[in-house]
Amino acid sequence: MPRIQKVLPEQASDKVATQLEAIKAKRGMVPNMFGTLAHAPAVLDGYLAFSEALSKGRLTAVQREVIALALAQHNQCGYCLAAHTAIAKRIGMDEAAILQARGGSSPNETDSAITGLTIALLEHGGELSTDRLEALRDMGIDDGLVLEVIANVAMNIFTNYTNSVAQTDVDFPPVTLAL
Length: 179
Description:
Structural class: mainly alpha
Radius of gyration: 17 Å
Helix content: 55-70%
CATH class of the largest domain: Mainly Alpha
């Protein structure tokens, strides 16, 4: 049972109800996480704007999901792992690629570098050595992509923590946390 109940559209202010209806129109449902975020309209606004902005960046949808899957696994967020596994499948990732991303790697060299950066940021509290940054540049991960990875890490840590604290009911096909 969730510790923070979701806000239903009929319980929300007009603005939040409109946002939840827009989410439903876009996604075919209002995932429980959005109902949870609706308790704080400014937070819901910020998340939606940040997510939309990052979707227009240079990272591909697959790269954004690789980041999300690695973080959800590392942070043991069952809700996020289920949601991002469903999204990953929808955008064409197969089960093997999903499991690799959850484990912090990828068969694609660039995606593997991005996942490695993601895990390094987590393990070192956002610190990155000069040598590591230079190695990323040598692999074609320029400063702009590094910043996009950092932004995606921040956004996904936010949702991992939110769903862990709220104990949001999983409304996607469940995924076992153990690899």
